[in-house]
Amino acid sequence: MTNQQPIYILPEGATRQLGRDAQRNNIMAAKIVAETVRSTLGPKGMDKMLVDSLGDIIITNDGVTILEEMQIEHPAAKMLVEVAKTQEKEIGDGTTTAVVIAGELLKNAERLMEQDIHPTVIVKGYAIAAEKAQAILNNFSEDVSIKSIDILKKIAATAMTGKGAEKAKEHLAELAVQAVVQVAEENKVDLDNIKLEKKVGGGIEDSELVKGIIVDKEKVNPNMPDKVTNAKIALIDCAVEIKSTETEAKIQISSPEQMSAFLAQEEHMIKDMTEKIINSGANVVFCQKGIDDTAQHFLAKAGIYAARRLKKSDMEKLAKATGARIVTNLADLSAIDLGKAGLVESTKVGDEEMTSVSECKNPKAVTLLLKGGTQHVVDEVERAMTDALGDIAAAIKVGKVVAGAGAPEVELARNLRLFSNQLSGREQLAVLAFADAVEIIPRTLAENAGFDPIDLLTDMKNKHDKGQKWAGIDSFTGKVVDAWKAGVIEPLKIKTQAIKSASEVAELILRIDDVIASSGSSKRNAGAEMPHGMGGMGGMM
Ligand code: ADP
Ligand code: MG
Description:
CATH superfamily of the largest domain: GroEL-like equatorial domain
Structural class: alpha+beta
Shape: elongated
CATH architecture of the largest domain: Orthogonal Bundle
Number of helices: 17
CATH class of the largest domain: Mainly Alpha
Number of strands: 19
Radius of gyration: 30 Å
Bound molecules: adenosine-5'-diphosphate, magnesium ion
């Protein structure tokens, strides 16, 4: 057995990176991702212009939108994008924060690895710190409820600071809170009950809350009224038409008399159906299925406004907004199933004919009609509104809030350092590295606003040591202020979730010491380069 034959266990063309190379490469990729979104953080963060392969442009400062549009391919970098997506799904806001912290955790881990601390030890220390962080954050947070209207408005305004919607943020914040309070049932907020409808034209400040639902369907027949006041609304999820025979039933018609008798019979059946609607007292009908021409004619003659082929989700929202019951069988339809709205009218949103159901009494589903001068503006207003709504809902759900502006991160880091005194040796170093990593948020806020991060952070830390737990950065003056009094307020969940997912992904990446890429993916996975169009990003490090 002297003649050693090479042994192939991987297919031809597969590449493999082991040990430190694999770790360094993954950390580098993750750091590039974090670095890319870092400049957008905070009220003074910059925007990014993203151009896709078709030349469509998005201008945004929303972390998750940027990362999704970049179509990142490096596996470790992709894991960071997942962090942003989780944050988006759980809350809707704080995506940049989560990614930036994850990048910094990995950067600091690299530093420890250079001091010959094994990744396993770092992972353990990070896990301890992450768990402790949850308790610490919880401890210094403040209580909030759906009754704290003032705080809720501040949460919404904070979410929108620095976004395209900034100019009208007070107005939008007001709308966001009104919408949430309107649809809340006790302390439960289901954001599905708030429909966002965009309209290009007018200014952002013309955005409004519609106490009802706007559906993207027009009235089925021009002879129907354009407008119905004191609407009594029937919601029907069966077809108002004679179903064409699906099986191969043949009808033998051999004479003109038979033909007209057949047609008369059909008309009779349709008439029967429409009469059931008319007799219920409805003057508006929304149908999830079809309404055929004859039925339209009869309904129009009775002065009824009807729209057809509505989405199921819109039917459900209409039920919540108007108090109607969705009826599956026309025979069951009666007055008690009808919903109410002060006004139903055909309306134009942009170029599209729609139907607006408004002036509902105590609706449990509403529409926010968002306006702006151009499509880009309206899209960014929508993203800002989504963040604001998500933040309000998260605050109410958990019942806890914190001030922002870097204050909670400094307070968390301070407490983690105190806690680390109980630990020994290398784990302690990892917990300290974790504490340092969290401070990337205030540091970045200072940098992005054009202020000296070292001076500001030192000042903040001093004030925190003196018990001013909400000492944070005023991004506009560069002074350290009480962020709570300044009205910069965020749901606790943004912070707990960001820390949780950031540390999870950092731990996951640190545990990898072997990257095996099959030949198809070897080229793109071999280095930490960004995909096409992002060339040169590596130089940012
Ligand atoms: P993310 O995607 O993480 O939400 P943002 O760009 O929305 O990123 O920035 C959020 C950060 O900006 C938070 O740390 C928040 O506390 C901070 N922030 C928001 N408004 C202000 C303000 N008026 N002054 C200082 N910091 C602020
Ligand atoms: Mg935000």
